[in-house]
């Protein structure tokens, strides 16, 4: 059977989170025994304690996959998001923000004592971000909340590795993969973080080995962690013939993509001043996917990914502030 033409470009499933960003220093991180530059899950008590001690903060809707969709929408792509919020103030903020970007978001909020997720992000003067995530309602996304017709309507299903950790969303994402592949769509997956890989390496490798992932995003450390080797090229080689599009970012060293067995490399885009690295990988994925959807070359996709990442690290927050469409047009002029 020939699959019908998609009506959306990308539907993503991810954590529906509101980011709370504050400037900090190494002493504050040490005081709270936080690992600089990492991401840890925290409980409600820790979230309250840390928030109370944080300096003045700024609230911005976030979540890895939602950030990627924000970039894609800014580049003119039609997108949908599936994620769980609570019927509370932050849930309303998240829903408003994502819909204001033109992204379809129909997941019904839950009613109860589990609040909407938030990520407390501490940004040190060297622009490193230390993320402390209270998953709240986002970890209770049930399979029954999926809009399978919405998933089947998109050319690409984009899955956030962070959300693989809780049991309910993991089951939902497995069902979403089945729906997407049954409709002849592509599945993109981002590994998200080493702690997720450590907990679910067997699952991720199983998905790869069985051809369930068409596009895999990682950074240098994540792909080496997945392969359990300490050499970047060896890690890429481990999966290069199992994933049609394998993409790995390397911070200031640029990025590598292996597409159908052919390796492509691109440098990082220049940035006058790095302010906050939150969302760099998310926006790289947005730029790469947008160019990929447009049928551009792998080199162009890497370049647009780098440009989108450069834009987001030049200011606070994980959502683009400059017009990514203008950046794209200048890049490909």
Question: What topology does this entry show?
Answer:
Elements: E1 8-13, E2 17-23, H1 26-31, E3 39-41, H2 44-53, E4 57-62, H3 64-74, E5 79-82, H4 89-100, E6 104-105, E7 117-123, E8 129-134, H5 148-152, E9 154-160, H6 167-182, E10 186-190, H7 194-209, E11 215-219, H8 220-227, H9 232-239, E12 245-249, E13 255-259, E14 262-266, H10 280-293, H11 298-312, H12 324-331
Helix pairs in contact: 3-10, 7-8, 8-9, 10-11, 11-12
Brief digest:
The chain is built from twelve helices and 14 strands.
Number of individual domains: 1
CATH topology: UDP-N-acetylmuramoyl-L-alanine:D-glutamate ligase
The H-level CATH homologous superfamily, spelled out, is Ribokinase
Helix content: 25-40%
Q: Would you state the CATH class?
A: Alpha Beta
The largest sheet, given as strand count, sense and whether it forms a barrel, is: 9 strands, mixed
Number of E strands: 14
**How confident overall, as mean pLDDT?**
94
Give your account of this protein's structure.
By secondary structure, the protein is α/β, with parallel strands linked by helices. It has one domain: 3-Layer(aba) Sandwich (UDP-N-acetylmuramoyl-L-alanine:D-glutamate ligase). It contains twelve helices and 14 strands. The chain has helices at 26-31, 44-53, 64-74, 89-100, 148-152, 167-182, 194-209, 220-227, 232-239, 280-293, 298-312, 324-331; strands at residues 8-13, 17-23, 39-41, 57-62, 79-82, 104-105, 117-123, 129-134, 154-160, 186-190, 215-219, 245-249, 255-259, 262-266. The chain has a nine-stranded mixed β-sheet with strand order 6-5-1-9-10-11-12-13-14, sandwiched between helices. Strands 3-8-7-2-4 form a five-stranded mixed β-sheet. Helix 7 (194-209) links the parallel strand 10 (186-190) and strand 11 (215-219). The longest helix has 16 residues, at 167-182. The protein is globular, with a radius of gyration of 18 Å. The mean pLDDT is 94.
């Amino acid at each position: 059977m020939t699959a019908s033409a998609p009506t959306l470009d990308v539907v993503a499933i991810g954590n529906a989170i509101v980011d709370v960003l504050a400037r900090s220093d190494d002493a504050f991180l040490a005081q709270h025994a936080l690992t600089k530059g990492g991401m840890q899950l925290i409980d409600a008590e820790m979230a309250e304690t840390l928030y109370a001690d944080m300096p003045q903060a700024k609230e911005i809707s976030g979540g890895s996959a939602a950030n990627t969709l924000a970039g894609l929408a800014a580049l003119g792509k039609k997108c949908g998001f599936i994620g769980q919020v609570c019927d509370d103030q932050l849930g309303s903020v998240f829903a408003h923000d994502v819909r204001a970007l033109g992204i379809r978001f129909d997941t019904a909020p839950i009613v109860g004592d589990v609040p909407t997720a938030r990520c407390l992000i501490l940004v040190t003067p060297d622009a490193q971000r230390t993320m402390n995530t209270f998953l709240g309602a986002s970890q209770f996304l049930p399979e029954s909340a999926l809009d399978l017709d919405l998933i089947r309507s998109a050319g690409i299903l984009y899955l956030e590795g962070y959300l693989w950790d809780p049991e309910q969303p993991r089951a939902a994402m497995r069902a979403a993969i089945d729906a997407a592949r049954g409709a002849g769509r592509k599945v993109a997956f981002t590994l998200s973080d080493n702690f997720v890989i450590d907990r679910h390496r067997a699952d991720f490798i199983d998905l790869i080995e069985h051809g369930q992932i068409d596009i895999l995003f990682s950074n240098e450390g994540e792909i080496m962690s997945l392969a359990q080797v300490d050499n970047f090229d060896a890690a890429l080689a481990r999966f290069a013939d199992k994933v049609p599009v394998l993409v790995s970012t390397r911070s200031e060293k640029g990025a590598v993509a292996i597409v159908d067995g052919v390796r492509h490399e691109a440098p990082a885009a220049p940035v006058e001043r790095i302010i906050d690295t939150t969302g760099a990988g998310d926006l790289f994925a947005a730029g790469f996917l947008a160019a990929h959807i447009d049928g551009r070359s792998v080199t162009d996709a890497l370049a647009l990914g780098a440009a989108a990442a450069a834009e987001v690290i030049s200011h606070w927050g994980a959502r683009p502030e400059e017009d990514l469409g203008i950046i794209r047009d200048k890049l490909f002029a």
